């Protein structure tokens, strides 16, 4: 592999959407930010210089970061933030991954505007395991747009202890599209020719919503998720959670159709309040006929077809889709599912409540403050980065390695609200020795209504060996686990009112964040961290910290 160099200048830029101009944090003045391209096996150096008044850090979502946890990016977990005027060079190697990932700011809610695609091509001369596409299209990144400042929204969410405002628009590559007021000119267009197969990369960078996506009158063949190839399958609509990436093959009509086609993305949610009016981002699939000079642009006289999306809370549709995902499990791309387990964990995932602090108005049930927790613990980020503390052996007062392996007490997670919604705040890590084979069952607690939580694990891919609804049955459910060809990924939806079981091998020393990728839940504390110890061989140890690591 070669070394690819990128310069990321964090700077403000004025952007106008929905008829209002706002100053936002960007990389190099671009929104969405620049695309990173590399081949499997390449080294990547990204020199990030912060020119804005806010502290910043960038996460390379899904990059394994083997032994380079220092470059992972979550603020106060693997690094202190990059302060104004400072530079930090993220250095990492892309190991055994190919497909689409993405990068985003990992501090407060700055990822609302600081994000971009990571395209990982296979090694030179190595073909895709599916028929070669004629062409690759520009990645499609879903996002959300707020008319107000997202930093004000997040501080309200914390101070008032209630739900923050929902976004004003969903976007494709930063563009809300024609279904929003004052937005027709800000419409994403995908230009295609007839009779071709395109590789389309999809990224969900939205802050708080899982999304359905469909292109009218076209099918999508899913070939990869989270930079891992999957057994291809064809759908009209797919589901993508915040944090997830999906590559599809899009086959265009054999002949130039005298029509244009909308693509829609809209939330899947079991709790989102209100109606779903005005929550659809539309883009246009625009055919260009290379043989006809007149057909070079969008023609308003032509009919436009719209896709049909599932109802907003159609959990059956979501389950149907996610259970179709399978690893290739071939000789060339084996599914290295841990067949035996060293340690089993059961985590409850969901919302809870904290007593309302004095002199505050809190909007949680009975005047409480909303919190979110894993096993009744709501993780608090320390003022020093956890990885540095871990590396220097400086734990006392910074964190405790006593994260509970089980919730406080068992209860019926899906029935009437249990009485132990009690949440404790603290910085607790779960310690694993090197190469521990882990099985983790995550159960939605349904405390404030059932809701799906897209859980993201940094530093690893995991295998989704099982999922189901209701309470997890530790006696009978493991018999149904798929240990042959389960999908391998870095972000998985814990089903609304159900559970998911994953397995992974703790072969990457460091401190690794795990959190709900719904930003509001992360803010409320639905986050924890694993502390994976060094192995005994030199090749099994975390590398020493780079000399330009930012200081807190
Ligand atoms: Cu994409 Cu910790 O996040």
From TrEMBL:
One of its GO terms (cellular component) is apoplast. CDD domains: CuRO_1_LCC_plant, CuRO_2_LCC_plant, CuRO_3_LCC_plant. GO terms for molecular function: copper ion binding; hydroquinone:oxygen oxidoreductase activity; oxidoreductase activity. It catalyses: 4 hydroquinone + O2 = 4 benzosemiquinone + 2 H2O. Residues 10-123, 138-289, 412-535 form the Plastocyanin-like domain. It holds the Pfam family Cu-oxidase_3. Its main location: secreted. Keywords: Apoplast, Copper, Lignin degradation, Metal-binding, Oxidoreductase, Repeat, Secreted, Signal. Its cofactor is Cu cation. Its EC number is 1.10.3.2. Lignin degradation and detoxification of lignin-derived products. Belongs to the multicopper oxidase family. This is Laccase. It comes from Triticum aestivum (Wheat). The gene is LOC123062561.
């Amino acid at each position: 592999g070669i070394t690819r160099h990128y310069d990321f200048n964090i700077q403000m830029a004025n952007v106008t959407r929905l008829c209002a101009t706002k100053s936002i944090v960007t990389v190099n003045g671009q929104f969405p930010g620049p695309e990173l391209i590399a081949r499997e096996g390449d080294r990547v150096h990204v020199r990030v210089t912060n020119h804005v008044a806010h502290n910043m850090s960038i996460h390379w979502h899904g990059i394994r970061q083997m032994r380079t946890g220092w470059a992972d990016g979550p603020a106060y977990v693997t690094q202190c933030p990059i302060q104004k005027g400072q530079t930090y060079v993220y250095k990492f190697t892309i190991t055994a991954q190919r497909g689409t990932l993405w990068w985003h700011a990992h501090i407060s809610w700055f990822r609302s505007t600081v994000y971009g695609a990571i395209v990982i091509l296979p090694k030179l001369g190595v073909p895709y395991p599916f028929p070669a596409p004629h062409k690759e299209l520009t990645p499609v990144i879903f996002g959300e747009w707020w008319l107000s400042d997202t930093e004000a929204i997040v501080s309200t969410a914390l101070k008032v202890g209630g739900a923050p405002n929902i976004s004003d628009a969903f976007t494709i590559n930063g563009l809300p599209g024609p279904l929003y007021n004052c937005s027709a000119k800000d419409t994403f267009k995908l230009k295609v020719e007839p009779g071709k197969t395109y590789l389309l990369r999809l990224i969900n960078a939205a802050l708080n919503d899982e999304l359905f996506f469909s292109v009218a009158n076209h099918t999508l063949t899913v070939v990869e998720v989270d930079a891992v190839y999957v057994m291809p399958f064809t759908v009209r609509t797919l589901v993508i959670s915040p944090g997830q990436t999906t590559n599809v093959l899009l086959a265009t009509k054999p002949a130039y159709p005298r029509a244009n086609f909308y693509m829609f993305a809209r939330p899947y949610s079991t709790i989102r309040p209100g109606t779903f009016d005005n929550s659809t981002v539309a883009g246009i699939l625009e055919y260009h006929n290379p043989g006809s000079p007149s057909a070079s642009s969008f023609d308003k006289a032509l009919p436009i077809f719209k896709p049909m999306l599932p109802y907003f809370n159609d959990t059956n549709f979501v389950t149907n889709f996610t259970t179709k995902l399978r690893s290739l499990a071939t000789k060339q791309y084996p599914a290295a599912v841990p067949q035996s387990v060293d340690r089993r964990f059961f985590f409850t995932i969901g919302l809870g409540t904290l007593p309302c602090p004095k002199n505050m108005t809190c909007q949680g049930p009975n005047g409480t403050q909303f919190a979110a927790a894993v096993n009744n613990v709501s993780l608090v980020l320390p003022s020093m980065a956890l990885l540095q503390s871990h590396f220097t052996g400086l734990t006392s007062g910074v964190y405790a390695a006593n994260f509970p392996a089980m919730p406080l007490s068992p209860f019926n997670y899906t029935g009437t609200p249990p009485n132990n919604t009690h949440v404790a705040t603290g910085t607790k890590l779960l310690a694993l020795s090197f190469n521990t084979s882990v099985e983790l069952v995550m159960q939605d607690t349904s405390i404030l209504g059932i809701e799906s939580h897209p859980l993201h694990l940094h530093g690893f891919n995991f295998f989704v060996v099982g999922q189901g609804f209701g309470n997890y049955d530790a006696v009978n459910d493991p018999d149904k686990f798929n240990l042959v060809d389960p999908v391998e990924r870095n972000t998985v939806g814990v089903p609304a009112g159900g559970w998911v079981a994953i397995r992974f091998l703790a072969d990457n020393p460091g401190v690794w964040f795990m959190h709900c990728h719904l930003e509001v839940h992360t803010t409320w504390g639905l986050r924890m961290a694993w502390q994976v110890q060094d192995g005994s061989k030199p090749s099994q140890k975390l590398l020493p910290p780079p000399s330009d690591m930012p200081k807190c």
